[in-house]
Amino acid sequence: MIATSLPRRTAFRLLQRATMALALLAPAPLLAAESAPVTSARVTAALLSSRDAVAPGERFQVALTQKLAPGWHSYWQNPGDSGEATKIDWTLPEGVSAGAIQWPTPKAIRVEPLVNFGFEDHVLLPVEISVPANARPGETLTLSAKATWLVCEKICIPEEGAFTLDLPIAATGAVDAAAQARIDEAIAALPKPAGFTAKLTAKGEDKLALTLPGLPPGASDVRFFPLLDTLIEHAAEQPLANGALTLARSTAFKVGTPTTEGVLTFAEGGAKRTLALSAEVEPALLQAVAAPEQAPAKVTLPPPPAEDLTLLLALVFAFAGGLILNLMPCVLPVLFIKALGFAQVAQASRGEVRRQGLLFLAGVLATFFVLASLVIALGAGWGFQLQSPPLVILLAVLMTLIGFNLIGAFEIGGRLQGVGDGLASRGGPVGAFMTGALAVVVATPCTAPFMGAAMGYALTQPPAAALSIFMALALGFAAPVVALSFAPGLLRLLPKPGRWMIILKQAFAFPMFATAIWLVWVATMQAGADGALAALVAILVAGFALWLIGVTRGSGRGLRALAAAAALLLVGAASAFVIESATPSARPTAQAGTDAPGVWSPARVAELQAQGKPVFVNFTAAWCITCLANDRVALSRQEVKDAFAKLGVAYLKADWTNRNAEIAATLAEYGRAGVPLYLVYPGSKGAQAEVLPQLLTPETVVSAAQRAAGKEVKTATAR
Predict the structure, then answer these.
(1) How many CA atoms lie within 13 A of 577 on its CB side?
(2) What is the mean pLDDT of residues 550-565?
(3) CA 373 from chain center: how many Å?
(4) Which three-class secondary structure string do you get for 517-586?
(5) Mean pLDDT in the chain?
(6) pLDDT tens digits, residue range 449-459?
(7) Is the dihedral of CA 320, 322, 326, 330 positive or negative?
(8) Which is more confidently placed, 539 or 372?
(9) Residues 109/73, Cβ–Cβ less than 8 Å
(10) pLDDT value at residue 226
(11) CA dihedral of 430, 368, 543, 581, whole degrees rounded to 10
């Protein structure tokens, strides 16, 4: 018997070891309950499931796990004096639902002079998932989640991650014991119902009393974490006396319900305890905030906000904005060319002048229609095309070639003449149409008064209404040129064609060169030194290609074909080089302005407001002429810098030179389809911003800063 049992034991042990080895070599089942991690230098996050397989009709727990680097912290649902809570956005199969985050007990994290509520080291955020009863065994349940969180040390960095879990559906669910134990431990540590109701009452003008009738007699280290962020000053001490905590009343105090919730932590017998607390709010406190808060003072210069507009008023604003747009520096060079064209034909044919005016109108309307359709369809902003460095470089090339054409460096024959001097020449219907198109393209960097509100309103309307607003803008833009073409009396005042027209034509080349220089600078802001090199190479190749075609004009057909092929080959190679080189730089763009503006983010604004600092936010772009003009005229002025320094105003810049979805969303929130947008936030947590006009003066900026700070200062402007 003994002799036969030994081989069996040996065989059994060998079978055990083989099974363990196979398990180690097959990691998929072991990792099925956890998603691929999202890792940064600060946080490693993953989605953890308590099940390896789920059954129809089952409810089970998943958890977003965050392992934080030493010194860094993420935030609770009320982040305290600054910060932002973690959010999870689920994409789930039909019938599957996800509950809310079950928030663990936070810590009070002091970041002088503030106190944040959040988590250090590691945290699990449990969420309950419900599987529908009609789920079919044999299929796969895919849980997809996008989470966003803010992680802070001395600086704050917003992070995000996409997580996917594929769980098989089986007749009976399979528990992942290790994951279940981790999640169970986190759920067991969640705040327990207090079993008693607290009372919140006023205690003088700036204090509150939180009476805790069920608090154990020997409790120590008591702290209340409110869910409402407008209840108390989070950094203040919370002394306990006679079973009541004394809390410092928030300067932005507001309670809108008869009860308020929170978490109470304390020590009892050396053990830490946490309770989910509900407190009845004294009616007098509710009455104290019944009166509406005083809204920030509004500047009366800009048009009403988009939500106050009607379609008729938006159409009027759009037409007025289009009229004013003609005075912007972006458009003037092209309008000069059109005026020169009128001068050439004014003494000859009234009908031809009118025909060119109408063709100009057609070019404006057609180009506005194309741009407006793209803006509406893509949800993009006005001037979106200038966020593409290759297109900016193409415009720089076009402006340079038009300039050299105007000074007579070369002549473009045939149909191409409509892009240069022929834009305004007699008998050039294509030229008149293309002048209107070009005027619209170069107008997009500018934003005129009334335009912002009208276009912001347009983006909130159905496509037909939105398109009508853009067409009203186009009509206003084209109106001066069309009116001039139908005013023979004005045209007769022009002198007869002569040498003065040649001189004026050559003089108009220099605004084109200036525009080209600006566009090259925009490309540099977008793509760094490589962008500038790409622009200069593109200008060189375009010029050489035109010269090559021109110098072979009049030669044999074979030589002309060879020159055209060589020019096309050069242009193709240069285009590939531009597309490859003109990649937007990841670094912040450097623009003139007040000294060292900070980089904008909603979290940064909230943090500065929590510190009691007013905030000025400049939504701008390197390609926005109106933005640059405001910067030179107002924001770079020394009196504005001095006022900001005396008032403690923090200056942030939101740079939309390259595409940025967060900036686009904020612009839309304020009813704007593009930049500029200027916001001034008071120095109190949660206070709403004042929207400044689209055209700034030093007086406007300083006055808004004074209102935000709640005080007056003497500056060169104010005196």
Answers:
(1) 17
(2) 80
(3) 21
(4) HHHHHHHHHHHHHHHHHHHHHHHHHHHHHHHHHHHCCCCCHHHHHHHHHHHHHHHHHHHHHHHHHCCCCC
(5) 77
(6) 666 666 666 66
(7) positive
(8) 539
(9) yes
(10) 95
(11) -150
